[in-house]
Amino acid sequence: MTDEIRNTVPVLFCKTDYMRYISHLDLMRLFHRVLRRTGFKLYLTKGFNPRPVIRLKNALKLGIEAYGQEAEFVLAEYVGRDIFVERMNNLLPEGIRLS
Fold first, then answer.
1. Relative to the CA of 13, which of 19, 24, 41, 86 has its CA 20 to 30 Å away?
2. At 7, is the secondary structure helix, strand, or coil?
3. First to last CA, the chain
4. Whole-prediction pTM
5. Are the C-beta atoms of 97 and 12 separated by less than 8 Å?
6. In a domain, 60, yes or no
7. pLDDT tens-place string over residues 53-67
8. What pLDDT does 1 receive?
9. Rounded distance, CA 28 to CA 52, Å?
10. DSSP string, 43-88
11. Which residues pair with 54 in a beta bridge?
């Protein structure tokens, strides 16, 4: 059995302006793509089609602006929360911000 490092980074995010029209599945795809672009070593699910582990507390309805939504991103390396948030915000489109 291998010892894998897992670093769970809890964040809050907001979905505003035109990004309120993005669906939950598209939001998850957006987070997957941005995570890959950050260069962080990702912790992937086990199975036939591995994906980065992202947990959103609530699935947001289409057309609703949201503030202070909880999310967790799981990485395979230790990354400070401030560095993670800064690098993600540099790559996220206008209307989606982590804090």
1. 41
2. strand
3. 36
4. 0.90
5. no
6. yes
7. 999 999 988 999 999
8. 43
9. 10
10. PB-SSSS--B-EEESSPPPTT--EEEEEEEEEESS---HHHHHHHH
11. 73
31: which 2 tokens? 């987070």
Per-residue pLDDT, 5: 78
Length of the chain, in residues: 99
Measured in degrees and rounded to the nearest 5, phi and psi for residue 26 equal: -70, -35
- CATH number for the domain harbouring residue 77: 3.30.70.580
Residue 84 tokens read as 């993670």
Positions in the chain whose pLDDT score sits under 70 = 1-3
Phi, psi for 17 (deg, rounded to 5): 55, -135
Question: φ and ψ at 43, to 5 degrees?
Answer: -90, 120
Distance CA 31, CA 89 (A): 11
